[in-house]
Amino acid sequence: MAKILVSACLLGHEVRYDGGDLAVGDPRFRALQDIHQLVPFCPEVASGLPTPRAPAEITNGDGRAVLSGHARIIDTDRHDLTENFLTGARLALAQCQAEQIEFAILAEKSPSCGSNVIYDGSFTGTRVPGVGCTTALLRENGIKVFSQNDIDDLVTMLP
Length: 159
Known about the structure:
two-stranded antiparallel ribbon, globular
């Protein structure tokens, strides 16, 4: 049995910016719950951001650029939330390190959790290849991160 860090919204927790969730109904995801220990975590809520909150996107890059200081995370009210998102990413990493978690399933398209695709920072719904800042930090530290759409890839790596 493996411990897997999972975006809390994917487990039905109402922590998304809009106050909702992204509960996964895929039977493969449910099978993971039966075999492995899923550890819910929301970097944004852990950093102190409220639910609901204004939508936020990464401007001028992706999560790797946020970590290096070359991109910012801004919400639709033009507030710079970069430090909140970085705090959430650090807390996610600390949780993984404390519990010896080697795998994560994080919500695609999120400025924190996206693992393949994020929004481009224009708030027009335009998606671009990239990762969120939590995904970037976890991967930099050896955590294998997957989206809710990549369950099959994760399953092949699990003990």
